[in-house]
Amino acid sequence: MPTIKIADEAGACYGVERALQMVQQAVKDAHAPVRTLGPLIHNPRVVTSLKDQGVEVVDFASEAAGSALLLRTHGVTPQEEQIAKDGCVDVLDATCPFVKKAHRAAELLAKQGYAVYVVGESGHPEVEATLAHVPGSLAIDSVEEVAAQADAMRVAKKVGLVVQTTMSAAKLSEVVNAVLPLVDELRVMNTICEATAGHQDSCMRLAKESDVMIIIGGRISANTTRLAEISKLYCPATYHIEGTDELQASWFEGAEHIGITAGASTPEAHINAVKLAIEEIVGA
């Protein structure tokens, strides 16, 4: 009978738990329609569950006038936050504290005269929110993108880096090593969150001892996608799913050790449901 093990650190982080508690309290106390500015977290199944409770997603703060609006965990631009405060009955800031830390770090670097770059995925809502706190800053997440900015960095001489909270330490190291020869001074504010680092280390350890790895979380979730990438390095039979309905019995044929982990936007109940479903499939 195969063993099934959940990673030591897996599932919803503090920022996500905090946001979910805030939205549930908002629904309970509602004196106006409850909305979220963008998906509250990157977990489509949770967002759907909230919609069933009457919590709708809006893309722009101007669409939420007269409502109680929660700012997403990934953060929003200062401009959108101000529009929300001007037009909404109530504004609840569910921005993850680690994302707030990145905002403050970027602002500090700018004040100290550094050319600011965010090591993260261009277009990701967290990265876009951080960039908006320092007009003129840019996102880079590869050695190739550093090369494209090489001339500008040489001219700036002083470069400061902040990091998307869900970025891997390995990716950060690659970027730092590429930037360092280009500048006179480099300051790195390591804003990778503690939960991200813990999830990634725990995933790596479990993948090394597993025949099959199941990664649970939204496909649009950057931190969950990174867990899948890390897992595949050590366990090729890695499968990224959002729910139990995606599990396939063929994945587990001949497996002796099955590992499970989950992204920071995945509630514990989802993890337990997947473990139970796998137990039923393999007869554990």
Automatic annotation (TrEMBL):
What InterPro entries does the entry give?
A: LytB/IspH
Task: From the UniProt record, list the reaction(s) this protein catalyses.
Answer: dimethylallyl diphosphate + 2 oxidized [2Fe-2S]-[ferredoxin] + H2O = (2E)-4-hydroxy-3-methylbut-2-enyl diphosphate + 2 reduced [2Fe-2S]-[ferredoxin] + 2 H(+); isopentenyl diphosphate + 2 oxidized [2Fe-2S]-[ferredoxin] + H2O = (2E)-4-hydroxy-3-methylbut-2-enyl diphosphate + 2 reduced [2Fe-2S]-[ferredoxin] + 2 H(+)
Annotated isopentenyl diphosphate binding sites = 42, 74, 124, 221, 223, 265
Report the GO molecular function annotations. Answer: 4 iron, 4 sulfur cluster binding; 4-hydroxy-3-methylbut-2-enyl diphosphate reductase activity; metal ion binding
List the active-site residues: 126
Annotated GO biological processes are: dimethylallyl diphosphate biosynthetic process; isopentenyl diphosphate biosynthetic process, methylerythritol 4-phosphate pathway; terpenoid biosynthetic process
The name on file for this protein is 4-hydroxy-3-methylbut-2-enyl diphosphate reductase
Output the lineage of the source organism.
Bacteria, Bacillati, Actinomycetota, Coriobacteriia, Coriobacteriales
